[in-house]
Amino acid sequence: MKVFGFAGWSGSGKTTLIEQVIPEITRRGLKVSVIKHAHHGFDIDKPGKDSWRHREAGASEILLISDERWVLMHELRGEPEPDLDAQLARLSPCDLVLVEGFKAVQIPKLEVHRPAVGKPLQYQDNPAIVAIATDVPLDAPLPRLDINDPAAVAAFILQHQGLI
Predict the structure, then answer these.
(1) How far apart, in whole angstroms, are the C-alpha atoms of residue 75 and residue 61?
(2) Which of 8, 22, 66, 109 has the fewest CB atoms within 10 Å distance of its CB?
(3) What is the mean pLDDT of residues 140-156?
(4) 14-33 tens-digit pLDDT
């Protein structure tokens, strides 16, 4: 599996850009998966539901399955957070994994930058960044992609990863 990341400050548009890039890639017949790292607790379960009750009772893992999807919830219960390699190993085979977050992991990344967020560019401090997607002209030594052109962003990623 090829792995490509998205870096940028909160509010820069990483999730929106990934959401727009995915269909551009799947239209080419490629299978895409996503790993999103959250810096805060989250819960996909609902209090009172059977799976929530099982977790609250102390189950380490709960696998929910239906005729449309399945999800495995794993409670860390004090264990360390798994690294990106451990999470990649859990995924089913695919052509490309897009990663949002995991800022310190050295995988090729696209920096998503909007000056309106009021934060500096990150590429100078992160050698894994190979291009910048933005909505303004930039004077930077990396390729500049139009954040509003998801087809061009997808093409760059696929070319960079040797998938086209």
Answers:
(1) 6
(2) 66
(3) 97
(4) 999 999 999 999 999 999 99
Q: What contacts 44, CB < 8 A, 6 or more positions away? A: 71, 73
DSSP state of 117: G
Q: Which two tokens stand for residue 141?
A: 């030594």
Report how far residue 126's alpha carbon sits from residue 116's, in angstroms, rounded to the nearest whole number: 21
Extract the runs of DSSP E, i.e. beta strands, from the chain: 2-7, 32-36, 61-65, 70-74, 96-100, 109-113, 129-134, 144-146
Tokens read off for 138: 């930039």
> Which CATH number does 2-45+81-160 carry?
3.40.50.300
- pTM value is 0.90
Read off the pLDDT of residues 27-70 as tens digits, 9 standing for 90 and up: 999 999 999 987 666 777 788 888 888 988 888 888 888 899 88
Whether the Cβ atoms of residue 54 and residue 61 lie closer than 8 Å to each other: no
Q: Nearest 5°: CA angle at 129, between 24 and 23? A: 10
